[in-house]
Amino acid sequence: MSTRPAPEALLPWALSALEVSASEQAPAMTMVAGDASNRRYFRLTLAAGTYILAEAPPATEKNEAFLATRELLAGAGVAVPAVYAADLARGYLLLEDLGDRVMLAELDAGSVDGCYGRACEVLSQMAALPADQLALPAYDETLLGEELGRFPQWFVDALLGGSLSEKERLVMDQLFEKLISCALEQPRVLVHRDFHSRNLMPQDEDRLAVIDFQDAVVGPVSYDLVSLLRDCYIQWPAEQVTGWALAHRDRLCARGLLPQVDDARFMRWFDWMGLQRHLKVLGTFARLYLRDGKPAYLEDLPLVIHYVVEILDKYAGDEPVFAAFRECFDQGLAPLVAQQHWNNKS
User: Fold this and answer.
1) Torsion of CA 117, 122, 127, 129, to 10 degrees
2) Is this structure's pTM higher than 0.85?
3) Which residue, 9, 53, 147, 180, has most beta carbons within 10 Å?
4) Tens digit of pLDDT for each residue in 55-67?
5) Is there a contact between 81 and 96 (Cβ–Cβ < 8 Å)?
């Protein structure tokens, strides 16, 4: 967490927006946990209650997208933080304080069914929005490819210090083509793009609030679902994940939000979308460490690698490129991974 103080202008701006006097309210500001972005958050405590102040530099942060997507989600009945004031020129936001609870801290074998049930209900609310009418970027071939490109650039080359041979790069490109094609064939919905247990905040009365939605796009129906169920920060048995995934498929079909699709096809959508996401995440987490100085994300790489290998193995018998990429991974990358200080597998 950054130790830099809040901008001097942030507190006076917030008090002015709230039309309160510092002498009357005795304001106090404390930093709260941030995220992978350049945004910083502060809790403003006043006599009348608490608020969250965000410093979101306009040069790097999608503040207009945050506000627009918040309106879409709120309109769909999704619990999102209220916005009391915004200064887009300076990147200041005055937000509702949703508290400190995050789903990740409350997940265990006894709670997970209920927690994920509530999360999947939120996904259903998002899926009910008319995708073809949303003013959001498309999760298209270009964006999917850019994300996958982080894997060789940041994970293989920059973090592991490895390099792919011409043959290995050809195999990788062939795998990427299959993953992108699978993503593009799926029905489209509003996609949060980071729908996981750290961005879901339990509230009173079993409500579940969603945060960090400024990167939303219109894209594959399975993306947010696999982000949730194959979370980069917590793992569940494969059979349980499959059961949850198919139950959500059934929920969407029953509500007319998804055409009928059989188990095998839906699970291929789900698994291959997860493989795209986790290859992207390997590159993204490496970039967060190397470029942005955030080493904590290295601790999550072993689980992400596990997910990648799990899906490669699952489809290797039917998809030669999956088997070929698994071989490349074993021969060229696994020895380098084994040497890393963050690799917790001895």
Assistant:
1) 150
2) yes
3) 53
4) 999 999 999 999 9
5) yes
